[in-house]
Write a structure and sequence with these properties.
By secondary structure, the chain is of the alpha/beta class. It has a single domain, classed as Glutaredoxin (3-Layer(aba) Sandwich), CATH 3.40.30. The chain is 28% helix and 25% strand. Strand 6 and strand 7 form a beta hairpin. This is Peroxiredoxin. One of its GO terms (biological process) is hydrogen peroxide catabolic process. Keywords: Antioxidant, Oxidoreductase, Peroxidase, Redox-active center. It comes from Thermoanaerobacterium xylanolyticum (strain ATCC 49914 / DSM 7097 / LX-11).
Length: 166
């Protein structure tokens, strides 16, 4: 069931940057993305790409939050192996948040690959969910965030600077 148009489920979790609640980001855009496992091949390409693109998200007053069901200890070890990450990785070790967002693979105990864009009022404006074996296109998430921030309808293939629809 889609969360688009609904209030994003609140959470309070431990992370690599201390305890974090979604409500800590009220008034900001949040890109909340779930990934299956630390140290996995696809995630090891994706997290560094989000990190590389972080300045672009910062320009749009958007916070990046990565989350999965691994422990904070695993996150910290993985971050060290990646050479650092400039945004928090949250631990949903008990799998409650992953369930609330509707993306838990129950038998494996891991998250589907998913991204949610949450607006400053705390509502989900965008979600994309797919199988864990395919990495996301971070440029597309950034493009959608830009489009949402125009407050207008945007045609297919729209990019920042293109005309919006009335």
């Amino acid at each position: 069931m889609s969360l688009v148009g609904k209030k994003a489920p609140e959470f309070k979790l431990d992370s690599t940057k201390g305890q974090i609640s979604l409500s800590d980001y009220k008034g900001k855009w949040v890109v909340l993305f779930f990934y299956p496992l630390d140290f996995s091949s696809v995630c090891s390409t994706e997290i560094p790409e989000f990190n590389r693109m972080k300045p672009e998200f910062d320009k749009l007053n958007a916070e990046l939050l990565g989350i999965n069901t691994d422990s904070v200890y695993s996150h910290k070890a993985w971050i060290d192996s990646l050479g650092g990450v400039d945004f928090p990785l949250l631990s949903d070790y008990n799998k409650e948040v992953t369930k609330q967002y509707g993306i838990l693979i129950e038998d494996a105990g891991i998250a589907l690959r998913a991204a949610f864009i949450i607006n400053p009022e705390g509502n989900v404006d965008y979600e994309v969910v797919h199988e864990p074996v395919i990495g996301r296109n971070v440029d597309e998430i950034l493009r959608v965030l830009n489009a949402l921030q125009t407050g207008h309808a945007c045609p297919v293939g729209w990019k920042p600077g293109d005309k919006v629809l009335d």
